[in-house]
């Protein structure tokens, strides 16, 4: 640790990261071993984090991530949306279709940012806040493809008529963004997605990912 950083805060953040990476929680002893500090230090860290509802302890004494983390997480959407808007605007205007940024919300895909093209006679109405199962629609399927192939770039996903009759979609996952799982895509009224749309969506997803790093 350097003089400009807080060792206690660093340890507290490491505790949260360790707990976030496990589904069954960790004991004080396990955290002590992973952090390389004594149990007394861990007890103090957990007590402080528990006061802020960032962790909770079950009846067996295992520590888990608390609901306070969810409240902090809700503030992430506006920041992500702001960072993504330039790339979404460019994508919508270039393709002439509604562009969207979609993030994972439990078992659903949630549209957190939407940009409609300004020059088309008609386009698909798609609103921020729209959600659908990850297994349906290009946005969700692109995210699932990235999960299934974490070490490679899965490219783009195309769908037709899965969310709205007569509409087709193309989406590519956000890659290499710690803590953010999502995709960038377009939805349009067409029988087939034009050939150039898929690569353009991949480019936009990369631009958004760069803005979020």
Report on the architecture of this protein.
- By secondary structure, the chain is α+β, with helices and mostly antiparallel strands.
- The chain folds into two domains: 7-65, Winged helix-like DNA-binding domain superfamily/Winged helix DNA-binding domain (Arc Repressor Mutant, subunit A, Orthogonal Bundle); 72-212, 2-Layer Sandwich (Beta-Lactamase).
- 42% of the residues lie in helices and 21% in strands.
- The protein contains seven helices and eight strands; from the N terminus they run αααββααβββαβββα.
- The chain has helices at 7-20, 28-35, 39-51, 68-73, 76-95, 137-148, 197-212; strands at 55-57, 63-65, 98-105, 108-115, 131-133, 157-160, 167-173, 182-189.
- The strands form two sheets. A six-stranded antiparallel beta sheet has the order 5-4-3-8-7-6.
- The radius of gyration is 21 Å and the shape is elongated.
- The mean pLDDT is 91.
- InterPro entries: GAF-like_dom_sf, HTH_MetabolicPath_Reg, Tscrpt_reg_IclR_C, Tscrpt_reg_IclR_N, WH-like_DNA-bd_sf, WH_DNA-bd_sf.
- This is Differentiation regulon.
- Keywords: DNA-binding, Transcription, Transcription regulation.
- One of its GO terms (molecular function) is DNA binding.
